[in-house]
């Protein structure tokens, strides 16, 4: 199964844009926000946790439809489905590869962008931590959505419609943790609940994803 | 080694083939014949387990089946060797030393998949079958876009290495591979216009 | 004969034909009686005045918005386990009905909220949950519409419905965690103290029964349409082949 992860990472690096595009999108969204709401640092600092979380969620969404699309078109997915590798494992590896190429860079870049939005100094650690715990769930949920829409010609928009409601709990807990951190409250409750969601996603969604892939390959 | 009994398969909710039965003994191949649209691809996908059968049974040793179709699953951004190594890793097999020579890929070893010609890609796709070491092969038009020389290469590998090594193969093809293998014409198994058994039969 | 026999499309068409008008009629009767009783023959609430009377629309539709989803979940499970086509089609048929109930609940909630909280919309946990439920319905319906092969669509939407249900419940509690809200407690729980007084309760009960019957009637009607559409599709496929 590691072979699949390594192959996907290698493809992401070689195809280019794998790491860069999502990150650039993240940057642009965060830069656009002050243009929209005005340069008042007090306002920006208040909304920074939410903006950073929503922007990273959208950036993660951007590359979801590529998780399975290429493998479906060139036939690798059917070959993987008939290989000894369990499709559930393949689904999890796909999600991990997506996380390494989007979630992880977003997490590492977020503090720099927090600086642009005058995020409260106390919140940086929680921003990093919440994204680190939360973005894997975004990737796993997104992988499930990508599997649902893999056979569709115009699946991109539908994928967003399916996945975004599923992102609600992760977003709520993630942004809440950062906000509590910024206000000097204890964010551990929100972080633990989010960790629970991430763990639950990785425990259960690979099965749903594999089932959906088998249906789509039929 | 491979036994198919009273198999019916469907496409888009309609039965296309019914009552298929055959056996392929170890070291034997079977060539599927029939006009376009008769359901050769549907049958091979059903045999490989990609889609459920409407009725009947397919038995072969567990974890020995492999499927190959027009879509080779070649990654354009990976080199020929990397493409093959990936499948070797997935199947937990080692890359055979002579695999590149067997399929005339030695000169292309470091070329990226995306820069290969259609025929070269096909050879790479077929070389995958030599890597994964599966005994029961379901091949859908394996020789599409191959030249005469490459067809001979592939037929030689199939006969000398795969079948001689105790494998079996079910092949849908329109050309003569030069194999010593019986034909199975699918025309008699074509489902009647009023054949029952499709998934939407309950609505009639 | 097992109860599943009734799930055969032909039998289903047979027994629903006479049942449907009765269900519809009874639904209309209950809703009319409930609404007239509730609007004109109950006293005004001592705190909320006559605004309280919107509960006769708000509570039943909110209840049915959730129940419709639960019905879809059960129907999806039945499809996955037993592969009864009618079950999958009933789930498909119920979704738009559920959406409309959700919208009614949201709108009446807003209208009720204006005099009570001074605003049409507040990010109150309960309202927010219904908004999220609305989004889940949209995704579910969009997925049905996007897939051509009906069995594939039934399979995929069933999985989405199951996964969606888990996430809908998660969202419900996440939203509570996020904002504790203005909404009054549940109107229909069994602990009487906080509850609506009997004078309001009886017409409300009649309205709820009416909404349940209306939901059943609409779903039966839409399922019949879906079965006919599916039958046309099957016949056309065979006509093309012959």
Please give a structural write-up.
The complex is a heterotrimer of chains A (218), B (204) and C (242). Chain A has 218 residues and is mainly α. In chain A, 83% of the residues lie in helices and 0% in strands. Chain A is built from ten helices and no strands. Chain A has helices at residues 2-15, 20-37, 41-62, 66-73, 76-81, 87-116, 124-148, 155-166, 168-182, 188-217. The longest helix of chain A has 30 residues, at 87-116. The two termini of chain A are 23 Å apart. Chain B is an alpha/beta fold and 204 residues long. Helix content of chain B is 26%, strand content 24%. Chain B has helices at 40-47, 80-90, 99-102, 118-132, 148-163, and strands at residues 2-11, 14-24, 29-33, 55-59, 65-68, 136-140, 168-172, 183-185. In chain B, strands 5-6-7-3-8 form a five-stranded parallel β-sheet, with helices on both faces. In chain B, β6 (136-140), α5 and β7 (168-172) form a beta-alpha-beta unit. The longest helix of chain B has 16 residues, at 148-163. The model of chain B has no long low-confidence stretch (mean pLDDT 87). Chain C has helices spanning 9-40, 55-82, 85-117, 125-146, 150-178, 198-241. The model of chain C is unreliable at 189-194 (pLDDT under 50). The radius of gyration of chain C is 20 Å and the shape is globular. Chain C is built from six helices and no strands. In chain C, 78% of the residues lie in helices and 0% in strands. By secondary structure, chain C is mainly α. Chains in contact: A-B, A-C, B-C. At the A-C interface, α8, α9 and α10 of A face α4 and α5 of C.
Main sheet summary of chain A: none
Number of strands of chain A: 0
How much of the residues of chain C is beta strand, in percent? Answer: under 5%
Quaternary organization: heterotrimer
Low-confidence stretches of chain A: none
Indicate the low-confidence ranges of chain C by residue numbers: 189-194
What is the CA-CA span between the terminal residues of chain A? 23 Å
Order of helices and strands of chain A: HHHHHHHHHH
Sheet having the most strands of chain C: none
Task: Name the average pLDDT of chain C.
Answer: 87
Largest interface: A-C, 30 and 25 residues
Record field, number of beta strands of chain C? 0
- Count every helix of chain A, treating DSSP H or I runs of 4 or more residues as helices: 10
**Total of DSSP H or I helical runs spanning 4+ residues of chain C:** 6
What class would the helix/strand composition of chain A place it in? Answer: mainly alpha
Q: What is the helix content of chain A?
A: over 70%
Q: What is the H-and-E element order of chain C?
A: HHHHHH
Work out the radius of gyration of chain A: 18 Å
- Average predicted confidence as pLDDT of chain A: 91
SS-derived structural category of chain C: mainly alpha
């Amino acid at each position: 199964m590691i072979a699949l992860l390594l192959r996907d990472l290698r493809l992401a690096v070689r195809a280019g844009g794998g790491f860069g595009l999502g990150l650039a999108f993240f940057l642009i969204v965060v830069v656009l926000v002050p243009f929209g709401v005005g340069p008042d640092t007090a306002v920006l600092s208040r909304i920074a946790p939410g903006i950073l979380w929503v922007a990273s969620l959208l950036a993660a969404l951007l590359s979801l439809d590529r998780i399975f699309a290429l493998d479906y078109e060139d036939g690798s997915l059917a070959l993987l489905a008939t290989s000894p590798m369990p499709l559930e494992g393949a689904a999890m590896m796909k999600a991990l590869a997506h996380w390494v190429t989007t979630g992880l860079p977003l997490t590492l870049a977020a503090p720099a962008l927090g600086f642009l939005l005058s995020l409260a100094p106390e919140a940086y650690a929680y921003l990093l931590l919440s994204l680190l715990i939360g973005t894997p769930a975004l990737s796993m949920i997104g992988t499930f959505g990508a599997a649902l829409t893999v056979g569709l010609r115009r699946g991109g928009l539908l994928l967003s419609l399916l996945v975004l409601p599923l992102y609600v709990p992760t977003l709520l807990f993630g942004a809440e943790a950062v906000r509590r951190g910024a206000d000097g409250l204890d964010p551990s409750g929100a972080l633990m609940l989010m960790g629970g969601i991430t763990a639950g996603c990785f425990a259960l969604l690979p099965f749903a994803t594999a089932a959906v892939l088998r249906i789509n390959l039929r | 080694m491979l036994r198919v009994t009273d198999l019916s398969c469907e496409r888009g909710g309609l039965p296309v083939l019914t009552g298929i039965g055959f056996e392929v003994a170890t070291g034997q191949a079977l060539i599927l014949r029939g006009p376009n649209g008769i359901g050769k691809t549907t049958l091979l996908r059903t045999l490989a387990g990609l889609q459920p059968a409407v009725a009947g049974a397919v038995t072969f040793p567990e974890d020995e089946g492999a499927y190959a179709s027009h879509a080779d699953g070649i990654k354009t951004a990976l080199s020929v060797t990397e493409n093959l190594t990936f499948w070797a890793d997935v199947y937990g097999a080692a890359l055979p030393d002579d695999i590149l020579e067997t399929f005339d890929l030695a000169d292309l070893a470091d070329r990226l998949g995306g820069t290969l010609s259609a025929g070269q890609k096909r050879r790479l796709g077929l070389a995958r079958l030599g890597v994964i070491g599966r005994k029961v092969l379901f091949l859908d038009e394996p020789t599409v876009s191959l030249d005469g020389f490459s067809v001979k290469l592939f037929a030689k590998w199939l006969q000398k290495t795969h079948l001689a090594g105790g494998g079996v193969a079910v092949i849908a093809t329109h050309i003569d591979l030069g194999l010593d293998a019986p034909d199975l014409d699918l025309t008699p198994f074509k489902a009647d216009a009023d054949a029952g058994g499709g998934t939407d039969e309950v609505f009639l | 004969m097992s109860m599943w026999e009734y799930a055969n499309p032909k039998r289903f068409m047979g027994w629903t034909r006479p049942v449907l008008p009765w269900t519809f009629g009874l639904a209309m009767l209950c809703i009319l009686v409930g609404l007239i009783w509730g609007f004109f023959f109950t006293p005004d609430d001592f705190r909320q005045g006559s605004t309280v009377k919107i509960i006769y629309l708000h509570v039943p539709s909110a209840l049915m918005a959730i129940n419709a989803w639960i019905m879809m979940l059960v129907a999806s499970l039945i499809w996955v386990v037993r592969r009864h086509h009618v079950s999958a089609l009933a789930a498909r048929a119920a979704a738009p009905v559920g959406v409309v109930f959700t919208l009614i609940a949201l709108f009446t909630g807003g209208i009720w909220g204006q005099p009570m909280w001074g605003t049409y919309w507040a990010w109150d946990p309960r309202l927010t949950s219904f908004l999220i439920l609305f989004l889940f319905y949209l995704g579910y319906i969009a997925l049905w519409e996007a897939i051509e092969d009906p069995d594939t669509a039934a399979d995929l939407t069933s999985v989405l419905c199951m996964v969606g249900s888990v996430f809908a419940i998660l969202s419900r509690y996440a939203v509570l965690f996020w904002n504790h809200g203005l909404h009054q407690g549940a109107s229909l729980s069994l602990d009487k103290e906080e509850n609506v007084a009997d004078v309001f309760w009886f017409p409300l009960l009649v309205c709820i029964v009416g909404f349940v019957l209306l939901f059943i009637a609409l779903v039966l009607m839409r399922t019949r349409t879906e079965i006919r559409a599916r039958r046309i599709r099957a016949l056309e496929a065979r006509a093309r082949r012959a």
